[in-house]
Amino acid sequence: MAVAGPHWHCRWGEIDLVLERQQQLLVVEVKGRRTGCRDRHGLDAIHPVKQRHMARAISCWRAVYPASAEQLLRVKLALVPLMTSRRTIR
After folding, report:
1. According to the model, what pLDDT value does residue 43 have?
2. Do 61 and 15 form a contact (C-beta atoms < 8 A)?
3. Which domains does the chain have, with CATH numbers?
4. With CB atoms counted within 10 Å of each terminal CB, which end of the chain scores lower, N or C?
């Protein structure tokens, strides 16, 4: 399994995580939210503009890594609940 990232950047945005396994490409967008957020734990952050930017970033990634062009693409959203601590997460 090959891994790119975290946070691969291009002019269209960033990709949080790219995984490659058995001729499949998995792109993961990660949204971490604390309890009480009003955007349905990050789900509302994936609006049409964000989706277009992600699609362009994925196309850009595939251009940089042309061997990935033949791989089946899967895009997943990981919604991560965070504790209510005020500390920065790295």
Report:
1. 63
2. yes
3. 2-76 (3.40.1350.10)
4. C
Q: What's the per-residue H, E or C state across 17-77?
A: EEEEECCEEEEEEEEEEECCCCCHHHHHHCCHHHHHHHHHHHHHHHHHCHHHHHCEEEEEE
Closest CA to 69 of 56, 80, 83, 59: 59
First to last CA, the chain: 24
Distance CA 44, CA 87 (A): 23
Q: What is the mean pLDDT of residues 8-35?
A: 84
Q: Is the Cα dihedral 50, 10, 78, 72 positive or negative?
A: positive
Q: Tokens in use for 24?
A: 């499949």
